[in-house]
């Protein structure tokens, strides 16, 4: 069964290599603007798109936008190393962000700097998967100078624009006073979180602790811990991706998630059936619609989207959907239709992204949610 890839971005080569070592048969993919990604798989299955952003929130945001638009990943994981803001987070441990603070927003007044940060919450479903992995600790591998089994911590991460390597500078004191619940500090998560927010793509930020942001960066101790922290972050991130793929497969296999008129057939079924979504691979069930052929699929998709648009207008007329939501939903339907009209399978798969945004717009309406879930699976099966 075809599953949507998970994208993983890193800022530095050390972090990139830590993830790449966990991929099977990575191959180069060149974006039309020259960006090089690699696409590999996990040993348990599922495709990973891997990319390198470079240092800073701005380049990270641009590359995050690019990977989302090109691959419409099920989730985007930003993986690497960071500095700990407090001694309670040991070197080599992993932090998964519950929130990301862009701490360099503020106003300078006569009585000091007043914080005006932006903040992004981690998506609930992925946070739940991460919390489960943290409890069972199946991801952890003893590593590091002391061969201590690493742990994962959950809390806010602060993302700024400069390297923080002090605990006594005025800025360091201000950060610790203003963002006293943040566990780690780094320079890319805010850009990635903003790109995910604008595109309706779930983002998880996973950082291994390589230093304490206390003046020890670039020391022998830091150089010893950086590869350990990167490896631990990569281990947790790939386990998280595996769990995401498992949930994808379970959702795609559950009949209740599909709209009226869709049904399952097992591999022993006979007779003529037309595949509307998915491909048969290692499972006893595939979702299909009857009385349709492959040649009918584009027309069927267009007609179904037209009916969905009509039903949206009806929901608006009945007062269950407001005017702004209707307008936004129609925009996503237009983008979906444009993607489905494209000739190539890769272009048609780009319908997944507007469909995911559409799914968010109709959340709370079970009937519409189920129909959009079916459309997403159809788009995923385009290749």
Tell me about this structure:
This is 5'-methylthioadenosine/S-adenosylhomocysteine nucleosidase. Pfam families: PNP_UDP_1 (PF01048). It comes from Nocardiopsis suaedae. InterPro entries: Nucleoside_phosphorylase_d (IPR000845), Nucleoside_phosphorylase_sf (IPR035994). It is a single chain. This protein is α/β, with parallel strands linked by helices and 383 residues long. The protein folds into two domains: 245 residues, Nucleoside phosphorylase domain (Rossmann fold), CATH 3.40.50; 127 residues, no CATH class. Helix content is 42%, strand content 22%. It contains eleven helices and 14 strands. The strands form three sheets. Strands 5-11-10-6-12 form a five-stranded mixed barrel, surrounded by five helices. A hairpin with a 2-residue loop joins β7 and β8. It is globular. About 12% of the residues have low confidence.
Question: How would you summarize the topology of this molecule?
Answer:
Elements lengths: L5 E5 L2 H8 L3 E7 L5 E6 L5 E6 L4 H15 L3 E10 L9 E9 L3 E4 L2 E4 L2 E4 L2 H13 L15 E8 L10 H9 L5 E3 L2 H11 L3 E9 L8 H34 L9 E4 L18 E4 L8 H22 L4 H19 L3 H5 L2 H10 L4 H15 L3
Parallel strand pairs: 1-4, 1-5, 5-12, 6-10, 10-11
Antiparallel strand pairs: 2-3, 3-4, 5-11, 6-9, 6-12, 7-8, 13-14
Helix pairs in contact: 1-6, 2-5, 3-6, 7-8, 8-10, 10-11
InterPro entries: Nucleoside_phosphorylase_d, Nucleoside_phosphorylase_sf
Protein name: 5'-methylthioadenosine/S-adenosylhomocysteine nucleosidase
Flag low-confidence runs: 255-300
Strand content: 15-25%
For the largest sheet, list the strands in their spatial order: 5-11-10-6-12
What CATH architecture of the largest domain do you see? 3-Layer(aba) Sandwich
Q: List SSEs in N-to-C order.
A: EHEEEHEEEEEHEHEHEHEEHHHHH
The SS-based structural class is alpha/beta
Question: What distance lies between the first and last C-alpha atoms, to the nearest angstrom?
Answer: 11 Å
What name is given to the CATH topology of the largest domain? Rossmann fold
Compute the CA-based radius of gyration.
23 Å
- Would you identify the CATH H-level superfamily of the largest domain? Nucleoside phosphorylase domain
Average pLDDT across residues? 82
What count of helical segments does DSSP give? 11
Kindly provide the name of the CATH class of the largest domain. Alpha Beta
**Total of domains:** 2
Helical proportion, percent range: 40-55%
How many beta strands in the DSSP annotation?
A: 14
Overall body shape: globular
The major sheet is characterized as:
5 strands, mixed, barrel
């Amino acid at each position: 069964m075809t599953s949507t890839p998970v994208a993983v971005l890193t800022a530095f080569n050390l972090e990139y290599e830590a993830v790449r070592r966990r991929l099977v048969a990575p191959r180069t993919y060149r974006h039309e603007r020259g960006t090089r990604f690699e696409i590999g798989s996990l040993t348990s299955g599922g495709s990973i798109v891997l990319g390198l952003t470079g240092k800073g929130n701005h380049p990270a945001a641009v590359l995050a936008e690019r990977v989302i638009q090109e691959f419409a990943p099920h989730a985007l994981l930003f993986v690497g190393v960071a500095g700990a803001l407090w001694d309670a987070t040991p070197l080599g441990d992993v932090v998964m962000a519950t929130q990301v603070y862009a701490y360099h927003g503020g106003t300078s007044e006569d009585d000091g700097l007043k914080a005006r940060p932006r903040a992004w919450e981690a998506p609930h479903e992925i946070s739940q998967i991460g919390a489960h992995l943290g409890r069972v600790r199946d991801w952890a591998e003893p590593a590091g100078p002391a061969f201590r089994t690493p742990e994962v911590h959950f809390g806010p991460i602060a993302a700024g624009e400069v390297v923080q390597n002090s605990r006594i500078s005025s800025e360091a004191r201000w950060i610790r006073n203003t963002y006293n619940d943040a566990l780690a500090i780094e320079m890319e998560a805010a850009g990635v979180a903003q790109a995910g927010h604008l595109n309706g793509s779930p983002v998880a930020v996973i950082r291994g602790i390589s230093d304490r942001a206390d003046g020890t960066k670039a020391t022998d101790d830091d150089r010893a811990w950086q590869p350990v922290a990167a490896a631990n972050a990569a281990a947790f991130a790939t386990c998280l991706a595996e769990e995401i793929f498992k949930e994808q497969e379970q959702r795609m296999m559950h009949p209740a998630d599909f709209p009226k008129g869709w049904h399952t057939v097992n591999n022993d079924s006979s007779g003529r059936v037309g595949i509307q979504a998915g491909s048969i691979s290692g499972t006893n069930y595939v979702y299909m619609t009857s009385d349709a052929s492959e040649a009918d699929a584009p027309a069927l998709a267009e007609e179904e989207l037209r009916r969905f648009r009509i039903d949206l207008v009806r929901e608006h007329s009945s007062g269950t959907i407001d005017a702004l939501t209707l307008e936004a939903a129609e925009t996503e339907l237009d983008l979906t239709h444009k993607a489905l009209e494209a000739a190539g399978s890769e272009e048609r798969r780009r319908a997944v992204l507007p469909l995911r945004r559409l799914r968010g717009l109709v959340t709370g309406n079970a009937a519409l949610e189920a129909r959009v879930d079916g459309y997403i699976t159809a788009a995923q099966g385009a290749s």
